[in-house]
Amino acid sequence: MNLRLTFYGGARSVTGANYLLEIGDPVKSFDKTQDHGVSTKILVDCGMFQGSKYSEDLNYEKFSYDPSGIDFVFITHSHTDHVGRLPKLYKEGFRGKVFATEPTIALIKKALPDNFNLIKNEAEKDGHEPLFTLEDLDGVINLTEGFGYEEAIRLDNGITAVFHDAGHILGSAIIEIQFPNQNQKSPKRPVALGALLAKIKNQNFGKIYFTGDLGNPPTPLLPPPFFPKDADYIVIESAYGSRVHEDRDERKNILQKVVMGTIQRGGVLMIPSFAMERTQELLYEFNSLLNDKKIPEIPIFLDSPLATNLTEIYKKHSDYFNKETTYIINSGDDIFNFPGLRFTRTIEESKQINAVSPPKIIIAGSGMSTGGRILHHERRYLQDPNSTILFIGYQVKGSLGRKILDEEKEVRIFGEKVPVNCEVEAIGGYSAHADQKMLVDWVRTVAGGGKLKKVFVVQGEEESSLALAREIEGVLKVDAVVPKQGEGFAL
Question: Distance of CA 60 to CAs 55, 118, 284, Å?
């Protein structure tokens, strides 16, 4: 069968993941103005662009393909930059099936309504229509169907898909798509029966993997990612494609030092955190530090209604945790509820945090300081030299978090100029993204099968993606491409 892969987001950009795979005979261009052909059209992720005002313009542009012609959408995980435009896809005509793991769907059902409220509020401020309506959101959620890991999903034309554990956040998946390869010929020379069957199977089917976001093992909560043994093509992320993280012990030690340093100065530790996974990992780590008496009991505020709601979903899907975490839970330790931890759901409860004397820790969204309650705390405490802001996740260029991390001495919050006098810290090891070493090792395992033809490097800033591509080509001698936005490839 013929294949065509086109990159409509996530190309030389960390956000906006959106990949169109057409499988059929013949596969024609999927431009709106041309014949759709007879191919099966599979969309992998439909994320929002994030980090700048230009991103908002990209989100409002019409899709470059006809959403009504999409047969299936596969979702790697529930972060906004992978699912945020799903309701817009529905608004523009999509009525196919949306497949994801069961925890991913549970998280989407909580996160997308929260996104809608933010989008609606921003649209009202800017005087234009929201990106999508509540009806669009409900409509696309009704098209979702959940699957477990390693469960075969039969599609049209002999195509099969499987979700494998990506180890990134709860329910995150590497998507394997297996397709008939009718252009291959059977082996001519005699071989043993077992080898013959394996060879025929290998020849009659091709495989492509979409990593989504690969995890950064070992993580406090989740198992390590799945490592495939063979593939014809890979689409791999590269958020940290040019960097190497600290190891787990080092990152926990740094967290302890940052906490203790802030306590000794009598300040406030602000942690902008993504509501999914980073927040839950932090709660796990604080629980562990308190149990081991590495830090004293002080007020720790989780100032995020969404993170609080998502933590409840984590509790319900604890069977997706790794063995160590499962053991701790089974021993009776509630890792998401410990002395000093306070959940603030209402605006009034959030405001009352100000009345609590430091030292204290505030975990709040958003993870890149692009919105949410963390902005109120940053406006108040960034100017305090005794306080600290700690970044534990990726900060996209143009985001407020990136500006602070890049040591800008003054930033704007709610239209006000706010001096940055506090300590600024970052722990890369708490990133949910694999680093360069892990990414290369992952590709090395796949290349070991001897079939790998090409690697497409996506979901990273251009410099990071190019660095990873060069490393893959230099170390593994495999063709690696960094596609451009809108660029398509015949496979």
Answer: 9, 15, 38
Enumerate the β-bridge partners of residue 210.
Answer: 175, 235
Distance CA 155, CA 318 (A): 30
The pLDDT value recorded for residue 181 is 78
DSSP 25-52: SS-----TTS--TT-EEEEE--PPP-SS
Record the tokens describing residue 309, joined without a space: 């709601």
Q: How far apart are CA 363 and CA 340, in angstroms?
A: 13
| Neighbouring-strand partners of residue 388 | 269, 423
Span 91-117, pLDDT tens digits = 999 999 999 999 999 999 988 888 887
Distances in whole angstroms, Cα of residue 212 to Cα of each of 20, 47, 74, 83? 14, 11, 10, 11
Is the predicted pLDDT of residue 429 greater than 70, yes or no? no
Give the Cα separation of 28 and 137 in Å (integer): 31
For the chain, list the domains and their CATH numbers.
2-243+432-490 (3.60.15.10), 248-430 (3.40.50.10890)
Report the distance separating Cα 240 and Cα 427, nearest Å. Answer: 13
Instruction: Round to whole Å and give the CA distance between 375 and 366.
Output: 8
Q: Write out the two tokens for 86.
A: 């799903």
pLDDT single digits (tens) 258-282: 999 999 999 999 999 877 777 888 8
Query: Range with the lowest mean pLDDT among 1-15, 48-62, 189-203, 379-393?
Result: 189-203
Inter-residue contact 478 to 447 (CB < 8 Å): yes
Handedness of CA 480, 11, 48, 380 (dihedral sign): positive
Q: What is the pLDDT of residue 183?
A: 52
Collapse the DSSP code of 378 into the 3-class scheme (helix H, G, I; strand E, B; otherwise coil) and give the result.
helix
* Of residues 79, 83, 73, 75, the one with CA closest to residue 21: 73
Strand, coil or helix: 152: coil
Q: What percent of the chain has pLDDT over 90?
A: 63
Q: Which of 456, 412, 57, 449 is nearest to 235 (CA)?
A: 456
From the list 97, 59, 103, 60, the residue with the least C-alpha distance to 79 is: 103
**CA 370/CA 357 separation, integer angstroms:** 26
User: For the chain, what is the radius of gyration of the CA atoms?
Assistant: 23
